[in-house]
Amino acid sequence: MNDLKKTIQKKIEEVWPDAQKNISKISHKTLKTLKKSEKQLLAIYDKTKKKTEQLILQAKREELYYELGKAMAPLLSSDQLKNKTILKIYSEIQEVNKQLRSKARS
């Protein structure tokens, strides 16, 4: 029984250095692949986030145009076009347009 145990231990000692090197190589390659995948996922996340922010701003702009139209429709004279509500909505539209242009550049 001792001979068998010694034989097995000797075989393990012979094979272990190569196995250890192979395990080390595999774990290094796996880690490298994981880091590369993480970078790719972060890049996709950033693109998606920017696109979502842009879509939100576009929807807000459309909503503001709708509100502006609702506020302007009952007005007849040009003096009434200086209404505070209309000016406020128009300035919000301008702000959203600025944000959209800055998002498009980045």
Task: Please explain how this structure is put together.
The chain has 106 residues and is an all-alpha fold. Helix content is 88%, strand content 0%. It is built from two helices and no strands. The longest helix is centred in the middle third of the chain and has 71 residues, at 2-72. It is rod-shaped and about 110 Å long. The termini are far apart.
Q: Approximately how much beta-strand content do the residues carry?
A: under 5%
Shape: rod-shaped
Distance between the termini: 73 Å
Largest sheet: number of strands, sense, barrel closure: none
Number of helices: 2
Quick check: average pLDDT? Answer: 87
Structural class: mainly alpha
In N-to-C order, the SSE pattern is HH
Secondary structure tally: strands: 0
> Helical amount among residues, as a percent range?
over 70%
Work out the oligomeric state of the chains in this entry. Answer: single chain
Task: Return Rg in Å.
Answer: 33 Å
Structural domain tally: 1
* Sequence stretches where pLDDT stays below 50 over 5 or more residues: none
